[in-house]
Amino acid sequence: MSHAEIATERTDESEKRPRGAASSAALGLLIGILAAALGLVPWWISGARLPLQNLWATQVMPGQMPLALLPRSQYEVLTIVALLTTGGAAAGFAIRVWSPVRRRLVTWCAIVGLLLVQVAATVQSFELLGQGLMRGTLAQYYRAGLMAGVICSILAAVVALLLIASKSTVATTIGGGLMAVPFTSWAVEWVVGVVGHTNVPIAVPSIAHWLPAIVVGCALAWCGVRPLGRLAVWVLNLAFLWVIPAVFTAVQSVLGTRVIAGDIPEMVLMGREVLTAALGPDGGAVPTVLLALALGLAGVGIRVIAARRVHSTT
User: Fold this and answer.
1) 196 class by beta-carbon count within 10 Å (0-12 exposed, 13-18 middle, 19+ buried)
2) Are 188 and 208 in contact (CB under 8 A)?
3) Which is it for the CA torsion 26, 32, 38, 41, positive or negative?
4) Verdict on whether the full-model pTM lies above 0.85
5) pLDDT of 218-270, one tens digit each?
6) In the chain, where are the structural domains located?
7) So which domain of life are we looking at (predicted)?
8) Which residues contact 83 (CB under 8 A, 6 or more apart)?
């Protein structure tokens, strides 16, 4: 090959690299945008009406509330967490399955796309909330509290994306454990959005109770136990399955009551009591943790048997 041909080939390669990088960046951005939208779809198909507000300036019917891209209400805090974090997890899962060559570039572009949608939804819904709430210090505290919750949820969505998109099996498994409960809440919102609050099938609450354990069990089976250091991931994910539902229950109980609304010491005390009860032996976490453990061990056993059969045939 002549020097001229070598120079031409190098020039062609250098031209392809920017194009390939631009294409990967565009796909990453698209993944983030679509995943963020997917996370918000259950709320959108439910009608996307801003929930009734205790501090609304005027008396209105539910159907007269404005359309909001996020459900701004203290009663919908856990729904917001589920909608936003599931979007991040979906983007991470897409990158994990795709496994692009420029993984870091795609991941950061996906984060940008995710933030574009989620920040836009946050701004739009808070603008509506600010226009409709009554004036006063209490309303300002209310908006600030909701804003803090949304910001934390968006940050959690980014963390979920990074963990699940990672090349590391350990990181992805941890991300799956963290997302088991929010994903279940998101799935329930899908059902509610499709059939309505009054037509939810009786089996849905029971399925929602066990679904996080199934998700965690499948993640543990995929992770495996070798090297033995991965047993720490098993302990961590089972702890997530024990603690996260209890935290969700405590938060929902505190924010869902009007009796002590605004009384911070009483709200903290109530939250502590509910959390302690939910973490206790009567809280219902033991059966779900045992189910996840059993599924994980069964999955590992199946993988070992399958590997031995493949080895014996070869």
Assistant:
1) exposed
2) yes
3) negative
4) yes
5) 999 999 998 888 999 999 999 999 999 999 888 888 877 765 556 677 777 88
6) 16-167, 199-314
7) Bacteria
8) 39, 40, 42, 43, 70, 71, 186, 189
Per-residue pLDDT tens digits for 132-188: 888 888 788 888 888 999 999 999 999 999 999 999 999 999 999 999 999 999 999
Rounded to 5°, angle at Cα 248 from 150 and 31: 45
CB-side neighbour CA atoms (13 Å) of 297: 8
How far apart CA 209 and CA 194 sit, in angstroms, is 20
pLDDT of residue 229: 86
Torsion of CA 12, 17, 19, 24, to 10 degrees: 150
pLDDT at residue number 261: 59
Report whether 72 contacts 148 (CB < 8 A).
no
With H, G, I as helix, E, B as strand and everything else as coil, classify residue 261.
Answer: coil
Q: How far apart are CA 178 and CA 174, in angstroms?
A: 6
